[in-house]
């Protein structure tokens, strides 16, 4: 006659069952929190809800399709202007940065909200040096 194994759930004491149950609940809660954190930090990187390979690529490598101005406005300078102003600047850059739109549309945003030549002039007092050609932040 085969002797029953000592390591089965019905034969364990209540305290060991509670220990295993607690471990499973805490581990499950930790996994759910980690999933939520990943979804909140990386889930919308490509502009669509849900986690995809593009989200991970954009979060860690960046979107290399746009100009340097666009990558700055979507990255480290995102908080320097409103989303509408950022969109205006990005559209302007994608259209080839026409000089005739600089004075009426773009320069007021730059003057009021940011110093986009901070890559050339780290001192904000030098923002008066902003010119059309400096908008592209070329090194």
Write a structural description.
By secondary structure, the protein is mainly alpha-helical. The protein folds into two domains: about 10-60, no CATH class; about 70-135, no CATH class. Helix content is about 50%, strand content about 0%. The protein is rod-shaped. The termini are far apart. About 10% of the residues are buried. Mean pLDDT is about 75; it is low at about 130-139.
Secondary structure blueprint with pairings:
Blueprint: H1 14-42, H2 53-60, H3 68-73, H4 83-94, H5 102-113
Short characterization:
This protein is mainly α and 139 residues long.
Defining key terms:
139 residues, mainly alpha, 48% helix, rod-shaped, disordered C terminus
Major sheet attributes: none
The 3D shape can be described as: rod-shaped
**Count of alpha and pi helical runs:** 5
- CA-CA gap between termini: 83 Å
Question: What's the number of domains?
Answer: 2
Radius of gyration: 27 Å
H/E series: HHHHH
Total number of beta strands: 0
Structural class: mainly alpha
Mean pLDDT comes to: 76
Give start-end ranges of low-pLDDT stretches: 132-139
């Amino acid at each position: 006659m085969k002797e029953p194994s000592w390591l089965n759930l019905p034969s364990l004491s209540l305290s060991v069952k509670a220990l295993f149950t607690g471990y499973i609940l805490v581990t499950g809660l930790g996994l759910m929190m980690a999933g939520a954190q990943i979804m909140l930090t990386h889930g919308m990187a490509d502009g669509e809800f849900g986690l995809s390979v593009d989200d991970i690529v954009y979060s860690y490598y960046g979107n290399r399709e746009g100009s340097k101005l666009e990558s700055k406005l979507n990255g480290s300078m995102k908080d320097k202007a409103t989303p509408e102003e950022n969109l205006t600047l990005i559209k302007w850059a994608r259209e080839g940065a026409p000089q005739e739109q600089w004075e009426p549309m773009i320069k007021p945003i730059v003057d009021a909200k940011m110093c986009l030549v901070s890559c050339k002039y780290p001192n904000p007092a030098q923002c008066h040096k902003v010119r059309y050609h400096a908008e592209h932040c070329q090194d």
